[in-house]
Amino acid sequence: MSLLHLTDNNFKKEVLESDLPVLVDFWASWCIAPDTLISINEREANLATKIKKDCYVLSYNGNKVKRCRIIDSSKISRTLGHCKKIITETGREIKVTDDHRFYTLDGWKRAVSLNIGDKVAVYPYVEFIKAKCNKKILISEKDIQKYALKNMIIERYIKELKDNGLLPLRSDNPKLPILVRLLGAQFSDGSLYYLEYNNYREVSFSVGQIGDVQEIRHDLNNLGFECTYRKKVSNCNIRGRLFVMHSYNVRCRSTSLWLLLRALGAPVGNKTNTDYKIPDWLMKAEDVLQREFLAAYLGGDGPTVNIRLQQRENKEPYNRLEINDIEFHKRDDLEKSGLILGQQISKLLSKFRIKVNKVFSEDDEYRRKDKSRVKIIHIQISKDFESGYNLCHKIGYVYAKQKALKTKFIGEFLRKRLFERQLCTQKYKEAMSLFREKKMSIRDISLQLKLSYDTVFGWLRYNKRPSIFKHFEKYPIWLKEAKRGLRDGLLWEKIKRKEFIYLDKVQSLTLEKRHNFIANGFLVHNCGPCKMITPLIEDSAKEYAGKIKIGKLNVDENPKTATLYGIMSIPTLILFKDGKVVDQVVGALNNAELKQKIEENI
């Protein structure tokens, strides 16, 4: 006998008036709030409602965070049931149904079972920026023809760009962020190479690790181009010290890509000897494109971000944020050009609230092989925590996986410190308001706000500014604990609050292989108890055919019956005999437990 499909309309006949006992599985596909952001790759997220069947999202296999295909995505109008909002110690939050699962130190746990102080796995990602939908033409056929060199069969290259969906290139082209990343790499450790005597053209990139090669190859393949690469070992003399440098050179010999990047504003040849700047269209572009340009540029010429413990005599060491200057070289007579480029980069950084102290140049004391003198252009980034966090999590790094992973951890530590500072500032404002407007005593204020008397006294009597003791938690110790047992960028974060909420709609997502994904930065599971118990229910319906009837009722689609029997959590199994409830179990059962329940009542 197959499973009964139960509804509000047939429940009385099939269950309450049945001659046989009836086991009813009350189930639903409860999941996440529709406005949840789902990570679709390392740098992009989209609303849950925009994630469709056959899309790919990030998933964790216990060792690596990889992309996995969506096989079902549906919006469900909710009519009952409890939901939860989970808020962590850094302000990260998510709204889910009670049975949605989170990865914890004790394995997968339902939202309803999570407690304050529990640690859940999170995956930091670059902040989501919503793109605008304008359709301005950036590059046309005429722009490509303008950069055509002699002996070029320009019609052939224009056709290739058209076939790859890259011409005319509009501002809403989904491939534009990839092109902008490649353009950013060209401004740092890339090159548009050209030999006039044999008309040879090449788009090349220099990166540090094989993972960076794969990232560039993936982007080039998405544009419709192929590339080759080779490992390079070289000796480098830096300020009198000899270093052995290991790197990879990635080459794409597509003339059509060469022309497109040139038209977009990429410099040709040796950048030290070339007068160039960031193109005007990019300086006026939307934030998401400027971010991708900066991320690739910083992946090459960008600063290394570190947090070191600074030792102090007779005092606790403190967390010192270190951010190197962005540096590049310009031939002596092109110093002004270099400073203009530095100011452009500074302006882009400021849009992401990254403070630049100054842009300046200095002499490079070592002459080049051709005896020419060179200036070093510096872009000095402020070492305040907010600038550091924004560098790590509002921009990040592309084509530099090792640097990106390191700064992801640093960014999370800074996020925690900044959130604590924000909470402290809020309490300071509350204390001032209670003191001035409600005339409360310092002791009463300290008790109400759960602060020490000395802290409130210092604010109110000595006008001390609100601050946190930001060095009580040392970065190396925090990082060791936050990474314990997790890999590939995942970290543990404590739950600060758990709130009861009501959702009238949820989005249900089902993945092809691994049944977990990254939602608002949380590692969550979509294969809940309802899906786990379904095969057991189906097998039991066949095994006990003629002795008991077994049916399933979707509580979202049949609110009348679900409300009548007080279904507040799923799955709920209720066994009926002669129209009356004789047994009820909330939660999933294993095969032996399910059989025992059935055999006790047939």
Description of the molecule:
The structure is a single chain. It is globular, with a radius of gyration of 30 Å. α8 (287-301) crosses α9 and α10 (385-395) crosses α11 (401-436). It has a five-stranded mixed β-sheet with strand order 1-27-2-28-29. Helix content is 33%, strand content 30%. 37% of the residues are buried. Among the domains are: 4-29 and 530-599, Glutaredoxin (3-Layer(aba) Sandwich); 37-123 and 490-525, Hedgehog/Intein (Hint) domain (Endonuclease - Pi-scei, Chain A, domain 1); 410-481. With 602 residues, it is an alpha+beta fold.
Provide a short characterization of the protein structure.
By secondary structure, the chain is α+β, with helices and mostly antiparallel strands.
Strand-pairing-aware structural class: alpha+beta
| DSSP helix fraction | 25-40%
The CATH topology of the domain at 37-123 and 490-525: Endonuclease - Pi-scei, Chain A, domain 1
The assembly state of the depicted protein chains is single chain
| Low-confidence regions | none
- Largest sheet, if any? 5 strands, mixed
- Amino-to-carboxy terminus distance: 16 Å
C-alpha-based Rg, rounded: 30 Å
Portion of residues in beta strands equals 25-35%
Spatial arrangement of strands, main beta sheet: 1-27-2-28-29
The chain-level mean pLDDT equals: 89
For the record, the CATH class of the domain at 37-123 and 490-525 is Mainly Beta
Helix segment tally:
17
- Total strands: 29
CATH architecture of the domain at 37-123 and 490-525: Beta Complex
CATH superfamily of the domain at 37-123 and 490-525: Hedgehog/Intein (Hint) domain
Overall morphology = globular
